[in-house]
Design goal:
The protein has 296 residues and is an alpha/beta fold. It has a single domain (6-295), classed as Metallo-beta-lactamase, Chain A (4-Layer Sandwich). The protein has helices spanning 49-61, 81-88, 98-109, 182-193, 221-227, 237-248, 257-264, 290-295; strands spanning 6-12, 17-23, 29-33, 36-40, 45-47, 64-69, 78-79, 91-95, 123-125, 130-133, 136-142, 151-155, 158-160, 200-202, 218-220. The strands form three sheets. A six-stranded mixed sheet has the order 1-2-3-6-8-9, covered by helices on one side. A hairpin with a 2-residue loop joins strand 10 (130-133) and strand 11. The protein starts with 5 loop residues before the first strand and ends with a helix.
């Protein structure tokens, strides 16, 4: 049986996000992993340019897209899953612990239209669940730590790890979001590093590092074991937790955190239009207290 899926990757420079189009070469059945909806925060304008490029690439190869797979509810870009579903009839899947993320953020934004049960998605994947992509098997690995709902998708000799790992010269994901845990992240990474060394690792993000000008988003388990600057072989859990906690304390919130979370926990559905026909995202205000609150 062929265990080598074909992967075409698309880099979104605005959000440093990589979306992957993965397919079974024997049947042409495909999945899209972590799609991006183009969104300009300054103007509030959205477009489907990146999603349309995915569809064009799939059409050119004659692929049938059956799944849109989210590795987690992203905090740095809006997902294009609903748009792609409308064009392909593909199912949208995410890890079952999205319920926990919804319960964390639903009260933050006052989202009465979010179920808290994950029903906005077509399928909630459990740990070790297996499904088919044409003739290929896809195994779901629950890899929390960055968020409680993070999953990785192992497809033949490839694994799509979301934000759990980055390129070896950049390291690992932050673990300071609500529900995140550096200790849990370390243990999830150890599960990934136990995969066969030749396993191809496809990442969801890449960021500039000194000495490397081109975006990179494919590596191997062997390279991660040897070279990952945060969690190479020999790095203890205590060392990793201390490093990750110290580093996370210096990081600013992602630029698109507030719009991304409230859209992505809805499976990418935008807020319903208000009476004037316009859709609005909510921005919770902080520090409105004391004399300031009394003056408003």
């Amino acid at each position: 049986m062929n265990t080598h899926p074909e992967v075409q990757s698309f880099f979104d420079e605005a959000t440093h996000t990589i979306t992957h189009l993965v397919h079974d070469p024997a049947t042409g059945v495909a999945a899209i992993v972590d799609p991006v909806l183009d969104y300009d925060h300054a103007s509030g304008r959205v477009s489907t340019r990146s999603a349309d490029a995915l569809l064009a690439a799939a059409n050119e190869k004659g692929l049938k897209i059956e799944w849109i797979l989210e590795t987690h509810a992203h905090a740095d870009h809006l997902t294009a899953a609903p748009y792609l579903k409308s064009k392909t009839s593909a199912k949208v899947g995410i890890g079952a612990f999205i319920r926990e993320v919804q319960h964390i953020f639903r009260p933050v934004f006052g989202l009465d239209d979010v179920s808290g049960e994950g029903s906005e998605f077509d399928h909630l994947f459990e740990e070790a669940e297996v499904f088919r992509l044409g003739a290929l098997e896809v195994e779901v690995m629950h890899t929390p730590g960055h968020t409680p709902a993070c999953v990785s998708y192992r497809v033949g000799d490839a694994v799509f790890v979301g934000d759990t790992l980055f390129m070896p010269d950049y390291g690992t994901a932050r673990a300071d979001f609500p529900g995140g845990s550096a200790q849990t992240l370390y243990r999830s990474i150890q599960r990934l590093l136990a995969l066969p060394p030749s396993t191809r690792v496809f990442l969801c993000h890449d960021y500039p590092v000194p000495g490397r000008s081109e975006a990179a988003f494919e590596t191997t388990i062997a390279a991660q074991r040897r070279q990952n600057i945060h969690v190479h072989e020999g790095t203890s859990e205590a060392e990793f937790v201390a490093m990750r906690s110290s580093r996370d304390a210096t990081l600013a919130a992602p630029h698109l955190l507030l719009p991304s979370i409230q859209v992505n926990i809805r499976a990418g559905k935008l807020p319903p239009p208000e009476a004037n026909g316009t859709r609005y995202l909510k921005i919770p205000l902080r520090g409105v207290e004391g004399a300031l609150a009394e003056s408003l």
